């Protein structure tokens, strides 16, 4: 076997090995997507009901709660970037971080300091590599988040929200995550989590319609009249932390489903590219083999002609 054929044979073997890895990762991601989608759907009714309850209290009472009152001056904003722990998901991480940088730039243009929080190893690595201070980071559960993870994150964010500015507290909180639309479409987005706005009730309906496959929101629906015991403020104190945890969990679940869908797409493309490379290297190896055969035949014919010519001279 010639030198060129050995080179092409080695390339074909290595590409075939990579193709097996890509195919395995594609199948694993495909098997996890439906489970992730089911978790998004399962969490949507609770999140919608909780949002409606909070909106009802906010609209039916005049309580000025710390989580719903807009501060007079916003000097520092917390930004929670929810990304993946692993790569091999195409442009998923890059698109998410680009959306986060867009939000951070916008906030800084308004003169606000940034307190950065991250979920997932990719986001943490990105900001650490660029010497950006991260106040707190969570890793290890981007593909399978739980309510406990959301509660831990929510507790840390609320602690900073209640802390005075002089002690490093924040005046508002933003989420940067990826909304799962379908297996072929995932939208990076950012939105304000706190202070809470009453319009979040409509937003929750819209989120449910996109994320859970529900019908269109009923914008003309009217809330009934409520009486709150022991008081509207006590009800808000009990509901708002659960509401924050629910919003964070919904963002984590949507991001997990988006990650698996993006990884399946990326690995499917990688398998197709590997197949194209194998075909190309096979053609090039065959061409090299034909060239070597032609050269050998030419050398044999040339040698025979030389022997015939020398015999004639004798």
Automatic annotation (TrEMBL):
Principal subcellular localisation of the protein: membrane
UniProt entry keywords in alphabetical sequence: ATP synthesis, Cell membrane, CF(1), Hydrogen ion transport, Ion transport, Membrane, Transport
GO cellular component: plasma membrane; proton-transporting ATP synthase complex
Bilayer topology: Peripheral membrane protein
Molecular function GO labels: ATP binding; proton-transporting ATP synthase activity, rotational mechanism
InterPro entries: ATP_synth_F1_ATPase_gsu (IPR035968), ATP_synth_F1_gsu (IPR000131), ATP_synth_F1_gsu_CS (IPR023632)
Domain of life where this protein originates: Bacteria
GO biological process: proton motive force-driven plasma membrane ATP synthesis
Localisation: Cell membrane; Membrane
Coiled coil: none
Function: Produces ATP from ADP in the presence of a proton gradient across the membrane. The gamma chain is believed to be important in regulating ATPase activity and the flow of protons through the CF(0) complex.
Subunit structure: F-type ATPases have 2 components, CF(1) - the catalytic core - and CF(0) - the membrane proton channel. CF(1) has five subunits: alpha(3), beta(3), gamma(1), delta(1), epsilon(1). CF(0) has three main subunits: a, b and c.
NCBIfam families on file: ATPsyn_F1gamma, PRK05621.1-2
Family the UniProt entry places it in: Belongs to the ATPase gamma chain family.
Protein name in the entry: ATP synthase gamma chain
Organism: Brevibacterium rongguiense
Biological classification of the source: Bacteria, Bacillati, Actinomycetota, Actinomycetes, Micrococcales
Gene: atpG
């Amino acid at each position: 076997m010639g030198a060129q054929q050995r080179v092409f044979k080695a390339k074909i073997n290595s590409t075939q090995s990579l193709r097996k890895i890509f195919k395995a990762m594609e199948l694993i991601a495909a098997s996890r997507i439906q489970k992730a989608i089911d978790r998004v759907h399962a969490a949507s009714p609770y999140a919608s009901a909780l949002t409606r309850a909070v909106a009802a209290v906010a609209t039916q009472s005049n309580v000025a709660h710390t989580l719903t009152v807009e501060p007079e001056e916003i000097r520092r904003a917390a930004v929670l970037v929810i990304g993946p722990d692993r790569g091999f998901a195409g442009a998923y991480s890059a698109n998410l971080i680009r959306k986060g940088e867009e939000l951070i730039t916008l906030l800084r243009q308004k003169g606000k300091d940034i307190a950065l929080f991250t979920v997932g190893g990719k986001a943490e690595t990105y900001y650490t590599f660029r010497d950006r201070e991260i106040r707190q980071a969570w890793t290890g559960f981007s593909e399978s988040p739980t309510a406990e993870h959301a509660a831990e994150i929510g507790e840390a964010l609320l602690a900073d929200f209640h802390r005075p500015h002089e002690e490093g507290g924040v005046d508002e909180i933003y989420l940067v995550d990826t909304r799962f639309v379908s297996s072929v479409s995932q939208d990076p987005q950012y939105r304000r989590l706190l202070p809470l706005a009453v319009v979040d009730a409509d937003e929750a309906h819209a989120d449910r319609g996109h994320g859970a496959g529900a019908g269109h929101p009923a914008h003309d629906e009217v809330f009934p009249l409520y009486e709150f015991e022991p008081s509207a403020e006590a009800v808000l104190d009990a509901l708002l932390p659960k509401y924050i945890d629910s919003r964070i969990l919904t963002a984590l679940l949507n991001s997990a489903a988006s990650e698996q869908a993006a990884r399946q797409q990326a690995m499917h493309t990688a398998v197709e590219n590997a197949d194209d490379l194998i075909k190309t290297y096979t053609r090039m190896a065959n061409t090299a083999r034909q060239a070597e055969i032609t050269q050998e035949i030419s050398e044999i014919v040339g040698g025979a002609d030389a022997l015939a010519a020398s015999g004639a001279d004798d």
